[in-house]
Amino acid sequence: MSFQSTVLCSTLVKLPMNDFDLVHRRLSSVTQSAPPVLSVLPTRALVDEKFKVVVENLPPGSPVTLHSLHQSEDKDYWEAFGHYISDHRGVVSVAEDLSFGGTYTGTEVMGLLWSMRPVPGSRAGIRLRKKNVCTPMLINISVCRGHLAEGFRDQCPLASVLIERWYLAPGVRRIDISEKGVRGTLFIPPGPGPFPGVLDMWGGGGGLLEYRSSLLASRGFASFALEYVKPGEMEKADVGLSYFETAFNILKDHPQVIPDRIGIFGFCLGSIVAMYLVTESNVIKPLCCVSVGGFHFVLHEFTVRGIHKLTVKHFNMIRVDENNHQIWRDIGPEILKDPSKKLNVEKINCPVLLVSGHDDQTMAAGENAEDLFRRMKATGKEHLLTSLQYPDAGHQIQPPFSPHYRASYSMSNAQKVMVLWGGQTKPHSDAQEDSWKKILAFLQHHLYSRITPKARK
């Protein structure tokens, strides 16, 4: 009980009975004058951790809008919002209550993150990806009176909280790598080590992306984010098998890495490279492989530029949708019509985890996963394959709670084009959350489970 209400109650015994209603109104006024309280816990966490959002001290049955806002490193604003009604106690709990409208509906604990979209009037075709993992994503969570769908900047929120979302856990070390012609960034988990290692390769957009590797290191794996093609320069990238073998060995030889406990993680073009290493390299022997959003084939002379040339030969298979977004999904199946291009599954000798969305409009990864399983079953190697397939997920399966973008600009043949990645926001986001848990469990099982005490020293 507050100090004010205590004073009023002590006064009550001295008043005549006919003044009771007056005191009751004064008590009600004190109670209702308490401002709404917004809490977000934890306010500082890794990006794959959930938070709880609760609003208290609202009038019962009040319509309110919870709103999230983030300014990216490219200075673009992203937002999400949900419409709620407070319960009989004047409380809204995002983990328990329904959103009746907004960028997401239903009971969605993390809807204020995964349903983020560019604010109205933003540049077309943008995507949200963290560049500097040494700083957090800052997100402002606020609560506004009424059910709003626009004009949030013109509102004076009832309450707001600034939260931090990190890819890099405290104690993770970031090490620039530039040796033997190889470029990238190595992330070492906190603690004495040594640790199992992961060679992490992104897609054909090029450049050095560190956010997944830093998150893997935050979860206990020494992760090497590899740069192997400059942005928009696939056609010039004379990078072959030896480059990736050298990168693998740099990771293996690091004193904080257990040399016989290394896996490979590839997305998009990186998944093509990963599976090629698993089947064709005579130099390295990864312990396991994670492939996200890829189709898999072999080339007589394997280079990134060679992959680009083969893809360009089938650019006649590119279609456009009603929004003039490019659809690339038919290129992979067309390449694999040539039996000589199919991956030699008999050479797969380590566990493989395939993650694919059936609405992938870029790589037809779902069809590829089914074909790969049939061929591995025919050779008695299906026990090495685990396939996670998500019906309404698209190509860009990212770490959990990352905003979904169905289409965005990408570089193709040195030109900027709008590419359709696919996916529906809610099921795609569910796929990101579910697959990340299973990817970490897969890596934990195959890279950690058989470590002997001697190997840890």
Molecular structure report:
The relative contact order is 0.10. The strands form 5 sheets. An 8-stranded mixed beta sheet has the order 10-11-13-12-14-15-18-19, with helices on both faces. Helix 1 (3-12) runs antiparallel to helix 2. It is built from 11 helices and 21 strands. The chain has 2 domains: 37-166, Sandwich (Immunoglobulin-like), CATH 2.60.40.2240; 173-456, Rossmann fold (3-Layer(aba) Sandwich). The chain is of the alpha/beta class. The termini are far apart. The protein has helices spanning 3-12, 20-33, 111-114, 211-218, 241-252, 269-280, 304-312, 331-335, 365-378, 425-448, 453-456, and strands spanning 37-41, 44-46, 52-56, 63-71, 77-85, 92-93, 117-118, 137-145, 159-166, 173-179, 182-188, 195-201, 222-227, 257-267, 288-292, 319-320, 326-327, 352-357, 385-390, 407-412, 415-420. Strand 14 (257-267), helix 6 (269-280) and strand 15 (288-292) form a beta-alpha-beta unit. The longest helix has 24 residues, at 425-448. The protein is globular, with a radius of gyration of 26 Å. Mean pLDDT is 90; it is low at 1-31 and 453-457. Helix content is 25%, strand content 27%.
By CATH, the topology of the largest domain is Rossmann fold
What's the multimeric state?
A: single chain
Rg value: 26 Å
Low-confidence stretches: 1-31, 453-457
State the end-to-end distance: 57 Å
* Share in helix: 25-40%
User: What class, by secondary structure content?
Assistant: alpha/beta
Give the count of structural domains: 2
* Biggest sheet record: 8 strands, mixed
Strands ordered across the widest β-sheet: 10-11-13-12-14-15-18-19
Q: How does CATH name the architecture of the largest domain? A: 3-Layer(aba) Sandwich
Please write the CATH class name of the largest domain. Answer: Alpha Beta
Helix segment tally: 11
Residue-averaged pLDDT? 90
The H-level CATH homologous superfamily of the largest domain, spelled out, is Alpha/Beta hydrolase fold, catalytic domain
Shape: globular
The total beta strand count reads: 21
Strand content: 25-35%
